[in-house]
Design goal:
mainly alpha
Length: 495
C-alpha cells in the first residue's frame, strides 16, 4: 500500500482543496448570483457531456486499465500515447456527428421546460475535452501519475469556474457569456492533459511509429473495449440520467435544486477518489502476477478505512443539513432529503471499498457491464416512477437504490471469484461509534448563525468520533497516522 498511501494522501489534499473551492461555488456563489433554473441549465449541459464523453471514449480507458502493463512491456510508450491520441480524435469526430444527428430529438423538441436548445452546440467542445481527459488521465494513472489529473480537474478547473461566477455576479458578463465561460472552464483539464500527452510523443522517430500491439492483441482489445463501452455507458447513465429525467420531466429549476443538493450528499464519497485513481495500476499489476493475497489485503483495508471516513463525513453533512439549507437559501428546503439519500448511497459506496477497481482490472471485468446495464435500466425505471411523485427527492431515492444494488452484486461476485468478504467486527464498532456521535449531537446547543453552528458541530463530531476510533484501535493505518502526527507535534514543542 506504500505507493497507494503516498499518492492518495497528496491526492486527497489536492482534492479537498478543490472541494473547498467547489463548496464555495455551490454554497455561496451560485445560489447568490444565479437562479435555480440557471444552475440547472449548466448542470444539464454537464450531464449530457458526461454521457456522450463516456460513450465516445470508445472503451479505450478500460483497455488501458486491463492491458497497459502488457503493452508497455512490448512496445515504446510513444506508440501507445500516439494511439491514445488517435482514439481521442476518432471519438471526438463521432461525438460531433452524433450531436448534429440527434439534436432535434434530444435538445430542440424534447423539453419545453429547459433552455438547453439555445446552448446545445456547446456540447461539442465539452464532449471533445471530456474524452481527452478520460483517456489521458487513465493513461497517466497507469503510469502512477494521477496527481496531474487531480490538479487540473479538481483544483484549477474549479478556480476557473469560481472566476466565471464572480464575473456574472459583478455584472461584468451576462448569463449567456457566463455559460460560455463555464464551458471553457470545463474544457480546461481535458486540454491540459491532451497537451501533456502530445508533449510525451517522440517525434524524432515518428516515421517509425507502428501500432503492432493493436494487431497482436486485436481480439482482446475489441472484447475489452466493447464491454468497456457497455459498462461505462451504463455507469454514466446510472449516475447522470437523474438530472436528464428531472430536466425533461419538471424543468431547469428542479434540475438546479437537485444538482446543488446532490453535491452535499456525494461529498461523503470524495475521499475514495484518490485511492481509486492510484489503486487501479497496483491492482492491475497484482492480477497480472496472480497475487490474490495482495488483492485481498488491499480490498479489506480499503473497506475499513473508507467506511470510517465515510461515516465521519456523513455525520458532518447530515447533522448540518438545516445549516446548509439556511446558507444556500430556503428555496432549496423542498429537496433537503436529497442530501440524506445521496449521502446514504455514497456511504454504501465507501463501505464496499475498491470492488469496482478489483473487477475492472481482473479477467472477469465483463461482469461489470452486465451489472451496470441492469442498473442503468433500474435507475431509469425508478426515476420514471418516483420523480412525478416525489420530484427531486424521488430521483435521489432511485440513485441511492442503484448504488446499493450495483455494489451488492459486486461484493457477491468478488466473494465467488476470490473467496473473500472484506467485512469484519471492526465495521460494527465503527457504526456503533457513529450512532453514539449522532445521538449525542442533540446535546449541542442551538446557534442561530449557520456558519458558527457548522463550526461547533464540526469540532464536536471530529473530537468525539476520532477519539473513539483511536481509543478502540479500529484501524492500524489510522492509528499509525495519528501517532506519527502526535510525534511531529511533540518534536515541534521540544524545538
Amino acid at each position: 500500500m506504500g505507493v497507494i498511501q503516498k499518492q492518495s494522501s497528496t491526492g486527497a489534499i489536492l482534492i479537498y482543496i478543490g472541494i473547498l473551492i467547489g463548496y464555495f461555488n455551490v454554497a455561496f456563489l451560485q445560489p447568490k448570483f444565479l437562479l435555480a433554473e440557471e444552475i440547472g441549465l449548466v448542470a444539464i449541459l454537464i450531464a449530457w457531456s458526461e454521457i456522450f464523453g463516456t460513450i465516445f471514449s470508445l472503451g479505450w480507458p478500460n483497455v488501458l486499465v486491463r492491458l497497459f502493463p502488457k503493452i508497455i512491456a512490448e512496445n515504446k510508450k510513444s506508440n501507445l500515447i500516439l494511439f491514445t491520441i488517435l482514439i481521442i480524435v476518432i471519438g471526438s469526430v463521432l461525438a460531433t456527428l452524433a450531436i448534429f444527428i440527434f439534436a432535434k430529438f434530444l435538445f430542440i423538441d424534447a423539453n419545453d421546460n429547459s433552455q438547453i436548445e439555445k446552448f446545445y452546440l456547446l456540447l461539442i467542445p465539452l464532449i471533445i475535452f471530456n474524452v481527452s481527459f478520460r483517456l489521458g488521465d487513465t493513461y497517466l494513472r497507469m503510469e502512477y501519475k494521477s496527481l496531474f489529473g487531480i490538479l487540473t480537474k479538481e483544483l484549477f478547473q474549479r478556480i476557473l469556474i469560481s472566476f466565471g461566477i464572480l464575473l456574472i455576479g459583478f455584472k461584468i458578463i451576462d448569463y449567456d457569456r457566463f455559460v460560455l465561460a463555464y464551458t471553457l472552464a470545463m474544457c480546461f483539464s481535458g486540454l491540459l492533459v491532451l497537451l501533456y500527452l502530445v508533449s510525451k510523443i517522440n517525434f524524432s522517430s515518428f516515421i517509425e511509429t507502428n501500432f503492432s500491439f493493436v494487431k497482436k492483441h486485436k481480439s482482446e482489445i475489441i472484447n475489452i473495449a466493447f464491454y468497456g463501452i457497455l459498462g461505462s455507458a451504463g455507469a454514466i447513465i446510472a449516475s447522470m440520467i437523474d438530472r436528464v429525467m428531472i430536466n425533461n420531466m419538471i424543468g431547469d429549476r428542479y434540475t438546479g435544486i437537485y444538482y446543488t443538493l446532490f453535491y452535499y450528499g456525494i461529498f461523503v464519497s470524495i475521499p475514495a477518489r484518490p485511492l481509486k485513481r492510484i489503486s487501479t495500476a497496483v491492482l492491475a499489476e497484482a492480477w497480472k502476477n496472480n497475487d490474490i493475497l495482495k488483492i485481498k489485503k488491499i480490498y479489506t483495508k480499503s473497506v475499513l478505512n473508507l467506511t470510517i471516513i465515510g461515516i465521519y463525513l456523513f455525520l458532518g453533512v447530515w447533522i448540518n443539513n438545516e445549516n446548509i439549507i439556511e446558507i444556500i437559501g430556503k428555496d432549496y428546503q423542498e429537496g433537503v432529503f436529497i442530501i440524506l439519500f445521496i449521502g446514504i448511497g455514497s456511504l454504501f459506496d465507501m463501505m464496499t471499498g475498491l470492488n469496482t477497481e478489483i473487477i475492472a482490472t481482473s479477467k472477469f471485468y465483463k461482469y461489470n457491464s452486465y451489472f451496470i446495464g441492469g442498473l442503468a435500466l433500474l435507475v431509469i425505471l425508478t426515476n420514471w416512477w418516483l420523480i412525478p411523485i416525489y420530484k427531486t427527492v424521488g430521483a435521489a431515492i432511485g440513485t441511492c437504490v442503484s448504488i446499493i444494488t450495483i455494489n451488492s452484486f459486486r461484493l457477491i461476485l468478488i466473494n465467488i471469484k476470490i473467496n473473500h468478504i472484506p467485512f469484519d467486527f471492526n465495521l460494527l464498532k465503527v457504526f456503533f461509534i457513529g450512532i453514539v456521535v449522532f445521538l449525542n449531537s442533540a446535546l449541542i446547543p442551538n446557534i442561530e448563525n449557520p456558519f458558527y453552528s457548522i463550526l461547533v458541530n464540526g469540532i464536536f463530531i471530529t473530537l468525539v468520533f476520532w477519539t473513539l476510533i483511536f481509543v478502540f484501535k479500529i484501524s492500524d493505518d489510522i492509528n499509525d497516522f495519528a501517532k506519527k502526527q502526535i510525534k511531529k507535534i511533540r518534536r515541534l514543542e521540544n524545538f
